[in-house]
Amino acid sequence: MIFLFSALTPRTAVSHPLRLSVSLIEYDASAKAFSMQCKVFMDDFQKSLILSVLNGRDLSEVKKEDRPRLIEAYFQKFYSIKHNGKAMAWAVKSVEYLQQENILWIKFQNVRATFKAGDTLDIANTMFFVDFGEKQTNRIVARIPAFNIDVVHAAKTDNYTFSHVLGDRVK
User: Fold this and answer.
1) In a domain? residue 14
2) Global pTM value
3) Is 112 inside a domain boundary?
4) What is the pLDDT of residues 123-134, one digit of tens each?
5) How many structural domains are present in the chain?
6) CA distance linking residue 81 with residue 123, whole number of Å
7) Is residue 125 part of a domain?
8) Of 82, 87, 88, 158, which sits with the fewest C-beta atoms within 10 Å of its C-beta?
């Protein structure tokens, strides 16, 4: 597992005008596996994590081996993917810090799932809205080739959830 978690130690924030996250959600029908990865600005994620999961506690006080659970707790709180109403649980697979870009690239372990026509998939991403309000946009790419789903959704404070009934064609 790649873990550059020294990246999650307090540092001077790199100023950037964008408030953006990007995530990719994919389903591999042959493997019956659902995958997710997300890229966030490191300084934005630190701020939000400290305020919403650590409740103001200093991140440097958290043991390195406990840090993946913090990310999982954060995503459980702000990023929901439900299959037929049941929330999918995500475990961190790897975290990579792209220092030059100030990006944290989080990959989650695949989740086993069997999708069939008529199933529902509900995705809600409210990351950073508490911190940055309307300035924040969360771009979500959802790819489920077996059901002809290949969409990009820009989640905003007033439109952060979208749903699909599998088997229906996306227009």
Assistant:
1) no
2) 0.86
3) yes
4) 999 999 999 999
5) 1
6) 5
7) yes
8) 158
